[in-house]
Amino acid sequence: MATVAPCYIIDPSDKYRPDHKGEEQFRNYEEGEFIDRVKRTYYEMHTKQSVESVTNKVEYWTTFDHMEMTILEAVEALNALVDESDPDIGLPNAIHAFQTAERIRHAHPDLDWFHLTGLIHDLGKVMALWGEPQCFVVGDTFPVGCAFSDKIVFGRKSFENNPDINNPLYNTKLGMYAENCGLDKVLMSWGHDEYLYRVLLNHEKCSLPQEALYMVRFHSFYPWHTGKDYNYLCNEQDMKMTPWITEFNKFDLYSKSEVIPDIESLIPYYQSLIDKYVPGKLKW
Q1: Where does substrate bind (predicted)?
Q2: What is the pLDDT of residues 241-256, one digit of tens each?
């Protein structure tokens, strides 16, 4: 089992404060300060994420014997991580977690489970701190085992070296799936969404509602909830949950240019939510 040295919330000094940006400036994958890093990460992801590799990652990470941590310990650990797929900002993920949570809290003051979902949504990225390459941790997600959509970042051309691209079992519209089978039966590319979702399911004391679990599992599935593709794989329940994911993503994406909150003063509130919905140490 891995060990992590004590890690404390970073003091959000001015060097971590992004310039204010308009909404149209987010998710720009054509130019910007981080574009070379972002493109390299996505091309590696789209080359390596296949049915075989994803299946192997699922088997490896769902043994849940890599670490035992509380939610807040996992948040603190993300001080050490900058997402290499993010074109908008170079902030440590722990700061982004509180930014997202606080924007949700302001807009939905009565939905405390929603506030906590904002805080924890990226915690699956701890895999990168334990040696997993970021191409299997960060970025937008997509189904494997069927044709890759042009709505995926950098399009189909970025998959030209993927081993599944010429496999007749996987390169048709439905591939290995039945129409409207439901996303629960779809093998998604491996990353932080799917990992955290499975960690939460494995935690007997987790009482977050289904809406929260959908947000965790599919918030990075942009080709679906924003690109409006892959509906042919969805069932009625998936479509019912789509508005919740769309609502969540407004805060996940556009919180990145907001003023950083006073994190230390917020910890008692979020600890109370953790105690309510996801108490104790989780197996990662």
Answers
A1: 27, 83-85, 125, 139-140, 219-220
A2: 999 999 999 998 755 4
